[in-house]
Design goal:
- The chain is globular and about 70 Å long.
- Helix 11 packs across helix 17.
- The strands form 5 sheets. It has a 3-stranded antiparallel sheet, sandwiched between helices. Strands 1-2 form a two-stranded parallel sheet.
- It has 2 domains: 253 residues, 3-Layer(aba) Sandwich (D-Maltodextrin-Binding Protein, domain 2), CATH 3.40.190; 218 residues, Periplasmic binding protein-like II (D-Maltodextrin-Binding Protein, domain 2), CATH 3.40.190.
- It is 39% helix and 10% strand.
- With 496 residues, it is of the alpha/beta class.
Length: 496
């Protein structure tokens, strides 16, 4: 596990910014499959179509990244295999295109604000940048980023771009502000799954360690089953006669974790219309039922509703690692942090549960700590060809030589903590990865009246979804209207 930490820290370099996995940001889901056209995790020889003679004469391409990750750009004699693969991929691209990338370190807490202020003041400090999808996405409606739908050399039909994910992010007739793909392998490390403690599962649920995997395979891993197991795990450990932080639970979650659960059950907030914009469809009977299921679950004995401030946001981690919680609903990346990294009990991984057995697929959701690539609106026009070529070449190189390492050697081997059933861990990761969903309101929710947080807010409000929506409908619809008007205002003349 110590080696695993080193492996994924380098992966975090690619993502540029890492945010705590239990922070107050929200994940989401929608009905579009957001994976790339090729989920191939075994490697491929498919290459880009860039001209073989591209030569940018050592042009400097400037970007930013988290300040504590400089070593990954310098190389390290003691690096692990993912470190090596990422470092080599970057070097290959720079040498191939004859460019020199300049990395500006910025503190995590101020990265988005620093970059945004630079762009708004037209300082021209960056050529492409990482964008926080929850907080940073709102700036695409203020002229901060270019429409990159026609960025030179970039072919969005290639499998190193998450095409359906990007389609959900696009506006109108295909206006694109963000790139999601192998250039930043965000959908892997920030994908939400359910970790299950093998010790507690064997003692409390079923001594057959394959039974949960078999349940998933059969399509029977539903929210009802999850709820049943959580209730069965509850024990008044501190003997105070009431549900409290000192007890053993099925799971412990913050309010914002409710979003993961809802989207995993097919909860939808918006839907793209014929004009390429989005209509609010949240006020439905199924969505209302999902909210009531989750609210009941939060009040049950089996689940502890913790504050993100409890134990520095690590409360669910410590409970799980100490064999005091059967499940932990977290992003993959959280397994790299203490106390998961050094916990004694083994654990397995399964998808988020379905609404019921009639739901066709398990739905993978992506934590909003994920990052996209964007091109600042103040970039010099004469650099666009080089920027586009770098993005295309890096995505292509990472697709062939980094993605297979991440999946096959890091996630499925180093990441695996169920040694006896390693093949099932591999299968579960592939299953979760195969059906990503994203909702427009989740990504842009901070810019349209907090519409993206409607699950968390409704669950804690005590109101039904229909009641809550009726109370805030004007806020949501106006926020969405203002956002789309801003798009129309700023996209003109802001095209790469």
């Amino acid at each position: 596990m110590k080696k695993l930490l080193a492996l994924f820290l380098c992966l975090l370099m690619v993502a540029s910014v890492v945010i705590g996995c239990t922070g107050e940001k929200t994940p989401g889901g929608e009905s579009k499959d957001s994976g790339s056209k090729d989920s191939g995790t075994s490697g491929t020889e498919l290459k880009d179509d860039l001209p073989a003679d591209l030569d940018f004469n050592n042009m400097t391409i400037k970007t930013a990244y988290r300040e504590d990750q400089l070593r990954y750009f310098r190389g390290d004699d003691n690096a692990e295999i993912v470190d090596v693969s990422l470092y080599k991929a970057t070097q290959v691209v720079d040498e191939r295109l004859k460019v020199k990338r300049e990395w500006t370190p910025i503190a995590d807490a101020v990265l988005t604000d620093t970059i945004t202020k630079s762009i708004m003041s037209s300082e021209g400090l960056y050529d492409y940048i990482p964008v926080d999808q929850f907080f940073g996405s709102q700036y695409c409606a203020t002229g901060t980023y270019l429409d990159i739908s026609n960025l030179p050399y970039v072919d969005y039909d290639k499998p190193w771009y998450y095409s359906e994910y990007m389609d959900t992010l696009s506006i109108g007739n295909g206006t694109k502000f963000f790139i999601a793909g192998d250039i930043y392998p965000i959908l892997t490390i920030w994908t939400t799954a359910v970790f299950w403690n093998k010790t507690l599962y064997g003692d409390l649920i079923d001594p057959d360690m394959l039974s949960l995997y078999k349940l998933v395979d059969a399509g029977g891993w539903t929210f009802e089953k999850y709820n049943e197991m959580c209730r069965a795990a509850y024990l008044d450990l501190d003997k105070d006669g009431q549900k409290s932080a000192g007890d053993r639970f099925g799971t412990s979650q913050s309010t914002y974790d409710a979003d993961h659960m809802a989207f995993g059950m097919g909860f939808k907030i918006t839907e793209k219309n014929d004009q390429g914009y989005y209509d609010i469809v949240v006020n439905s009977e199924k969505n209302d039922n999902i909210i009531e299921k989750i609210r009941t679950f939060y009040l049950s004995e089996g689940m502890y509703h913790y504050s993100p401030n409890d134990d520095g946001g690590k409360y669910p981690h410590t409970k799980f690692a100490n064999d005091e919680a059967l499940f932990a609903q977290q992003a993959f990346i959280c397994a790299l942090e203490e106390p998961f990294r050094s916990m004694r009990s083994e654990y397995g991984i399964v998808p988020l549960p379905k609404y019921d057995e009639t739901q066709k697929n398990y739905i993978g959701t992506v934590h909003n700590a994920a990052f996209f690539v964007a091109v600042p609106s103040d970039v010099k026009t004469d650099k666009l060809k080089a920027i586009g070529a770098v993005i295309e070449a890096q995505g292509s190189e990472n697709y062939r030589n980094v993605r297979p390492v991440i999946y096959e050697q890091a996630l499925k081997i180093k990441f695996n903590r169920d040694d006896e059933n390693a093949e099932y861990t591999s299968k579960m990761i592939d299953l979760i990865r195969s059906n990503y969903r994203i909702d427009f309101a989740y990504v842009y929710g901070n810019a349209c009246g907090d519409l993206g947080r409607i699950v968390a807010y409704t669950v804690t409000s005590g109101s039904s979804l229909s009641q809550y929506y009726a109370e805030h409908e004007a806020q949501f619809t106006q926020g969405l209207k203002d956002l789309f008007e801003s798009f129309e205002k700023y996209k003109s003349g802001k095209t790469a």
